[in-house]
Amino acid sequence: MTKNLRQFTKSLVRIIHGFVELFVHYFFKFVYSGSGQQMPPIKDLLLLESATSIAHKIRTKKITSVQVLESFIDRIKEVNPILNCVVADRFEEARKEARAIDELIRSGTVPEDALAKEKPFLGVPFTTKDCIAVKGMIHTSGLVKRRNNIAEEDADAIACLKAAGAYPIALTNVSELCMWWESANNLHGRSSNPYNTNHIVGGSSGGEGCLQGAAGSAFGIGSDIGGSIRMPSFFNGVFGHKPSKFIVSNNGQYPIPITTEQTSFLGIGPMSRHAEDLLPLLKIIAGKKAPELRLDEPVDIKKLKFYYQENDMGAVCVSPVSPEIKGLLGKISVHLEKAHGIKAKKVGFQRFRKSAPIWFANMKTPNGPTFQEQLANLQGSINPYLELLKWIFRTSEHTFIGIITALADKGGCKYGDEKHTYLVEERGKLRREIEELLGDDGVFLYPTHPTAAPFHNEPLVKPFNFSYTAIINVLGFPATHIPMGLNSEGLPIGIQVVANTKNDRLCLAVARELERAFGGWVPPVVEA
């Protein structure tokens, strides 16, 4: 095929996809006419506070852990019938833990400064997604065949948080086997967006992003192999951080990464309504590797170099970036210049248009298990054609997207073939380009997603939109999603900030700066 013919074909595909996407969007807009179910207003002002503030008030005896816990339990019971984001709880066990913590603090046997240093989140309840193990709770990853699976041990990240005084209270919904960007499965159902229940919450940490946006727990823990922290954070209007590769332990995450490469792509990280919580939480879950991130080093925003890119340079079958999201980059540039005298520089990495193919290629493994085997819970293999037939008659245990993913897993490039080698090399070249640009004092602003939260099922016609986050995973860089208000339809929008490997502190500093400048999380409804 000649170059001109290839260009013509790509242009034609873009045009056709654009029309299909537009038609489907307005079709769903008609189907989901109205604003969705109304969220209960936030009446308890404690729910609006940061986890850091809550921890300080608990250890200084201004409030009790029991009081905090009951506030969040009440909120979960209030919103979950509408949002379906919590799939399991341990409220009674948590009540016992909260009472013990309050007794410890009342006793005065441990000085307040010692508590602040050794257990910085003492008494703070949190939640995590149902693919990160919490001892004694279900560990299903949204797979029907794992419905009776109970975690025997805590994931390393959860163990670190418990050691810091926090305690888990509930698990949140995910996509089937965490491999899609809408959180829906045949075990726990589908989660809905707190800003408009007709819209998705993202995936695979979608239930967690939803609960955080609805103020249902003090903070959350998610995992991200292609955007699974940042996309739900974006859709639900909260902060979410994907750490640098190999920093936070993935032990206790299911599915288990197959290769060292996949392990480098997967990051367990914090999700919260307030930027100030991200750094101390990251420091805790990073454990012994935390010193590598130099999180205690102060960051002077004025000394940072800012770069930004408005889109992926025109990838095929990826939605164009909405004008309102593009506009955020302009607003940030104006703020940086007025507040700090910083001139943000616009860049254009051409290889970003290959983001989806690069991600898919780098996810390939030399040996199984295949996604068909994963869907069988590694007990044999499903027949995707049979499951597709069963799905038509609503008898399959699997979601449509899970079955299609199993079929797609057979296609594309093969590990080690010419196309695979080419795309792996392209990843390496892009990584070097960005590393050289950012150095040790640069950050890169890039859309987290091209559009605000789509309607339920709408991602089926734009499946590759996740590429805006996925490319950062295969590059191994840290990235933080920063909420920046609501769009004209009342849905959250924001931007991700990326830094060089192990420069997470730069991302987190920029998150706090932009939260101060633009307000950060916007509560869905607060009672006046």
Automatic annotation (TrEMBL):
Residues 68-508 form the Amidase domain. GO terms for cellular component: endomembrane system. The keyword Hydrolase applies. InterPro entries: Amidase_dom, AS_sf, FAAH2. It holds the Pfam family Amidase. Coiled coil: none annotated. One of its GO terms (molecular function) is hydrolase activity. It comes from the Eukaryota. Transmembrane segments: none annotated. The active site is at K129, S204, S228. Keywords: Hydrolase. This is Fatty-acid amide hydrolase 2. It comes from Asbolus verrucosus.
